[in-house]
Design brief:
about 170 residues
């Protein structure tokens, strides 16, 4: 699959089969993240791979809305950064996350970004606090997102070329 097709085919998937992901595929996904470009070549992100069902269920409850489907994913990759060490941690983590999502797609796996930065529970508990507690993450690291990854249990149509918003592209001036 060439990159043009890969970009068109990659869609968010929130339903997965129970099939475990091969260790070599997990390594390929992580390799894509580790090879992603970063500000000043810092490579300061951290990734935590989670396949324990109990931990996946706890992570799914780290925020009130939008993450419950993680309970049914066979794999999660938690994307972390240190805001003090790297002022571009959000950008660097975002590039790494989408690189991993494209690699997952190329391997025939589905994925979905679960936003965690700035999210939490209605009682005021930050998602970071929950995630740090579940996975033993040091307090200086913040969670940008969690990628849910697995074999697709649903069908999604490719992106529709006719719906691209070319009017949002400006050349030289707005």
């Amino acid at each position: 699959m060439d990159f043009k097709d890969l970009v068109q085919m990659r869609r968010s998937h929130r339903k997965f089969t129970e099939q475990e992901i091969d260790g070599d595929d997990v390594k390929s996904i992580l390799r894509a993240g580790l090879m992603s470009p970063t500000s000043k070549g810092q490579r300061a992100w951290q990734f935590v791979v989670v396949d324990n069902k109990g931990d996946l269920e706890k992570l799914a409850d780290a925020k009130d809305l939008g993450g419950q489907f993680l309970k049914d994913a066979p794999l999660a990759i938690v994307v972390l950064g240190d805001p003090v060490q790297n002022d571009c941690w959000v950008e660097d983590g975002s590039i790494a996350a989408i690189s991993m999502q494209y690699q997952a797609e190329e391997l025939g796996l589905g994925s979905c970004w679960i936003q965690m930065r700035g999210r939490g529970l209605s009682d005021g508990t930050l998602a970071d606090t929950v995630i740090q507690g579940v996975l033993g993450i040091p307090e200086n690291l913040s969670c940008l997102c969690i990628l849910a990854i697995g074999y697709k249990a649903d069908e999604r149509k490719p992106q529709n070329e006719e719906r691209l918003k070319w009017e949002n592209v400006h050349v030289e001036r707005f």
